[in-house]
Every structure is written in C-alpha cells, then in structure tokens.
Predict the 3D structure of the following.
Amino acid sequence: APAPVSPAASGGLKAAGAGDTGAGAGDFDFLIGHWRVRHRVLRKGSQRDWMEFEGTSSTRKVLGGQGNIEENLLASPAGAYHAMAIRSFDAKSAEWSIWWLDGRFPLGPLDPPVRRRFQDGVGAFYSDDLVDGKSRRTRYLWSKITPATCQWDQATSNDQGATWETNWVMAFNRVAPR
C-alpha cells in the first residue's frame, strides 16, 4: 500500500472527505478491534427455532476515518464462512450506510444499504427492499455498547415497520484492544 502523504508534502491539498468527518463519524469507533461473537440466527421458516454458533470479527477504519470494514468468520453448523460489513459515513447527512457481503455468495447481489445514525447510545439503521414482489423493511440495531461488549440485532418487517421479527443477534465480546 502506498505511504500516506502529509498535507505539507501534498501542497496542503486534502482528499475529498478527508479530515472534516463531522459529528457522528466516530460512532463506530467502539467496534474497532478484535471480537469473539456469539451468533443466534432464526432458522428459515421458523418463529421459534434458533441456531446458535460462534464466530470472530475484526473491524478497522478505512476512507480516512469515514468508514470501516468488519471482517467476520462465522462457524455455522452448516459450514464455516466469511462475511463482511462495509460502512461509510456521509458528513453532509450525518448518516451511515452499511452493506453486508456474504462470502458464500461472492457475486451478490448486495442488498440495499441500511442507513441512519446513533441516538442516545443506540444505532438504528433501516432499508426498504422488494423480496418476491413484496415490500420488506430491514432494521439493524447496535446496542448494549460497553468497552468490552456490544450487540447487533437484525429484524425485518413486512408491514412498513409496524411489527418486527428479529432473525439474527450477534453478541460481541472484545478479545483484543483497539
């Protein structure tokens, strides 16, 4: 990778979006580092049958601090696989966009990004999509954030958010400092 160029060496020029990250750009700083993750996934077609398994996660900053990449290894009973979350922050809207890339399906397609921000210590992010011709809303929640733990929940709604069905919970426990 090329070495970073200091502002003085570049004639004082900054890349678009560099430095001026804005309020909210550090919202995911708690996640930087290495984690042990306990996954709880609702089995397809069930409302009560959960599959539980372990995994690991590692997150690092990218895009001059206006984004991050979270790499995951999921030890699912159906077979281990890799996945990643890609996050970017828009200083103008003060919102994050988050995409999930599943290594089992490397050609995609990617779902629409969930978007929004943190408020009162909870990150709530939403997207709207069509699945089999029907409208579906997806929600990611980041909560229970401490220096050593945090939780991510995924839920979907088929009624524009009037009711939600949580289908995936990830409980993070830090294993290495940032």
Notes: The first strand starts at residue 33 and ends at 42. Residues 66 and 89 are 5 Å apart (CA to CA). Confidence is low (pLDDT under 50) at residues 1-20.
